[in-house]
């Protein structure tokens, strides 16, 4: 059974920021805003090896994701899920996100030696407001 609806997929396809919560090594939550997309089944974002969220996901792939439409606070998506880290295609993926969010062909904030990773989240539960 698919968890993401057509409305959810539409929201993920727009230039909305997502907030991703991971669990740090000390057990505390760590939340960061990310550019987000979907492949039609998963919630997808990109990060770099060595960042706090990457390190947390290596230890524990359980995540929560929140997306709120910047023009309509009542249009939201809240899910729990499991993250998979994928290196193949990650540089091209961050460039696609740069095109989506910035209108630029390549990601302008790439650092020397940076190794990009695609984070593919399989939703396991959709949370409801209230």
List the helices and strands and how they pair.
Layout: H1 6-13, E1 17-23, E2 29-35, E3 37-38, E4 43-48, H2 52-59, E5 62-69, E6 72-86, H3 90-102, E7 116-126
Antiparallel strand pairs: 1-2, 1-5, 3-4, 4-7, 5-6, 6-7
Give the CATH H-level superfamily: Electron Transport, Fmn-binding Protein, Chain A
Number of continuous helical runs: 3
The first-level CATH class name: Mainly Beta
What percent of residues are in strands?
35-45%
Taking all Cα atoms into account, the compactness measure Rg is 14 Å
Poorly predicted runs are: none
Largest sheet: 7 strands, antiparallel
- Tell me which oligomeric state these chains represent: single chain
Mean pLDDT: 95
- Compressed to H and E, one letter per element, the order equals HEEEEHEEHE
- Integer tally of domains: 1
Structural class: alpha+beta
Gross geometry: globular
Number of strands: 7
CATH topology, by name, is Pnp Oxidase, Chain A
Instruction: Note the gap between the termini.
Output: 24 Å
Q: Indicate the percent of residues in helices.
A: 10-25%
- The CATH architecture comes to Roll
Q: Report strand order across the widest sheet.
A: 2-1-5-6-7-4-3
What can you see in these coordinates?
- The chain has 130 residues and is α+β, with helices and mostly antiparallel strands.
- It has one domain (6-125): Roll (Pnp Oxidase, Chain A), CATH 2.30.110.
- 22% of the residues lie in helices and 43% in strands.
- The protein is built from three helices and seven strands; from the N terminus they run H-E-E-E-E-H-E-E-H-E.
- It has helices spanning 6-13, 52-59, 90-102; strands spanning 17-23, 29-35, 37-38, 43-48, 62-69, 72-86, 116-126.
- Strands 2-1-5-6-7-4-3 form a seven-stranded antiparallel sheet.
- The model has no long low-confidence stretch (mean pLDDT 95).
